[in-house]
Automatic annotation (TrEMBL):
It comes from Pedobacter ginsengisoli. Residues 22-299 form the Luciferase-like domain. It comes from the Bacteria. InterPro entries: Bact_Lucif_Oxidored, CmoO-like, Luciferase-like_dom, Luciferase-like_sf. GO terms for cellular component: cytosol. CDD domains: Flavin_utilizing_monoxygenases. This is Luciferase-like monooxygenase. The lineage of its organism: Bacteria, Pseudomonadati, Bacteroidota, Sphingobacteriia, Sphingobacteriales. Pfam families: Bac_luciferase.
Amino acid sequence: MKKLLNTIPYSVLDLATVIEGKTPADTFKKSLDLARHVEEWGYNRYWLAEHHNMISVASSATSVVIGHIAGGTKKIRVGAGGIMLPNHSPLVIAEQFGTLASLFPDRIDLGLGRAPGTDQLTAAAIRGERINAAQDFPGDVLRLQAYLSPDNHRSSVRAIPGEGLDIPIWILGSSTDSARLAAALGLPYAFASHFAPAQFLTAINIYRQNFKPSEYLEAPYVLACVNVVAADTDEEANKLATSLYQLFRGIVTGKRRLLQPPVDSMEGIWTDYEEEQAGQMLACTFTGSKETIKEDLQQFLDQTQVDEIMATSHIFDHGARLRSYELLAEAFGR
């Protein structure tokens, strides 16, 4: 049966982007304002991601920012998309998210990734002697589940708060590595197609084909994160999207900057090589008017049959960003 946009949930990934001329403090205020708006527009979740040593991303202390957003909203689910588990002890994450879930019952999600969320030098500073902790990711997920389990009350090491709380755990992926783990554990799978689309279709097929029902989930559940830049006209959206293009040019060249204002044209700003490389990373990007976005996202849904779409929007002007998410909600039939 064909899925329609108005039958699936839609959500937000906020990378807590710091724009040129502003500070992380400004970012956190705008994130909360965005969260309050999208809550009213019917969005399902509001996730933040753990990154380090990136001047344009302010969500390094992810659990703290989640608390800020959840505390300023009423019903939208708030969570991590995700916590890079090899950077932390499973016990500490169980305690942090147990605290969040105690403060905001039935509203907290915990997405887990195995990447460092940064460069290798910074990863070494974070992990210390545990620099190869990514190899322990499957075991760490199981340890985290154990700490959150009601049965853990018999253990000599307990997560207080956390133990016995219903905190949905997701496995995140940007390649095929975690697809089999999510399938084997019977957990929902969220894919970072907003920056790593190359193995997206392969990974979700592996996940679906190998999925084993669990106490958490009876059938596979795939969430795809995509870039969205919506505006009242295609022309306006295309101009707004140049901020996104400049951001990804910085990723390609290794010369990261705060999010830049839009420009009339990218000509002369990036080389053909930079444009090609950024274009590959941005294959799952949807830009245009509400009508254009709706048509293109429906084609994406037809191709992938995902269960939920999460949008991230790198837009310089806060008002334009709000408008983009409002139009996206309308495209989903709000």
